[in-house]
Design brief:
Layout: H1 3-41, E1 46-48, E2 54-56, E3 61-63, H2 66-73, H3 76-97, H4 115-123, E4 128-135, E5 142-149, E6 159-164, E7 177-183, E8 190-195, E9 199-209, E10 214-221
Antiparallel strand pairs: 1-2, 2-3, 4-5, 5-10, 6-7, 7-8, 9-10
Helix pairs in contact: 1-2
Subcellular location: Nucleus
Region (Disordered): 86-116
Keywords: Metal-binding, Nucleus, Zinc, Zinc-finger
């Protein structure tokens, strides 16, 4: 048999194998999409930001697509935060069932502060927080996306304000800087240093998710 025929058949066989592998990968991708899409759509910790990416409100992570988010959900970090969230929810439920738990400290029958609450009142702990520099997709203006995790907040929601460099005493005065200060009692206030440029109030977005105890603030320069 001519050598050329063997080579041609070999090439055809290789192409057939590659085509079969691509077909199997395509089918597997379709199956994963069918399974992943509904799960991500009903996930209370997942939201799609203005850039079209998927963020986890529980962990503060960002993902390019639903498949990447689904892999994150099955990872150790997400499972760790999820277990902590469930423990806190169970503790809150038990406190609600205890009639003495809601009484003020100066009334008879009131329960004492927990060790965690005493430490927080004494030290005024900082919440877990994260800052990302972002670019507005339409105007191209720079901005900031700030996420805070506040599991110990019992009343109210975090509030932010813009503070001039002359109205603070923590850092040296610098005319080219200003600060975003977020109050989140019983935690200490969080201050983020930004450029001293006007803020476009029309683009300010803030949300506090009581389910995940996560506060998100996003704003852009004018």
């Amino acid at each position: 048999m001519p050598a050329g025929d063997g080579k041609e058949r070999g090439v055809k066989k290789k192409i057939g194998v590659e085509t079969g592998q691509k077909a199997r990968q395509h089918c597997r991708k379709q199956r994963e999409t069918i399974v992943v899409d509904p799960a991500v759509d009903v996930d209370p910790f997942c939201f799609k930001n203005y850039l079209g990416k998927y963020e986890c409100k529980l962990c503060g992570t960002r993902h390019v697509d639903k498949e990447s988010y689904a892999k994150h959900v099955s990872g150790k970090r997400h499972q760790h935060f999820l277990s902590k969230k469930l423990k806190l929810s169970k503790k809150d439920d038990s406190d609600e069932r205890d009639p003495k738990a809601k009484l003020p400290m100066n009334q008879p029958g009131s329960s004492a502060l927990s060790s965690t609450d005493r430490v927080m009142l004494r030290k005024r702990m900082l919440p877990k927080w994260h800052v990302d520099e972002v670019i507005h997709p339409e105007s191209g203006k720079s901005g900031y996306c700030i996420s805070l995790w506040c599991p110990k907040m019992k009343v109210g929601v975090p509030r932010y304000r813009i503070v001039s460099t002359y109205d603070q005493s923590i850092e040296p005065v610098s005319p080219d800087k200003q600060y975003i200060v977020i109050s989140c009692h019983p935690y200490r206030s969080v201050g983020v240093c930004i450029l001293n440029q006007p803020i476009d109030t029309a683009t300010v977005y803030e949300e506090f998710d009581s389910l995940t105890e996560t506060y998100v603030l996003q704003l852009f320069h004018a």
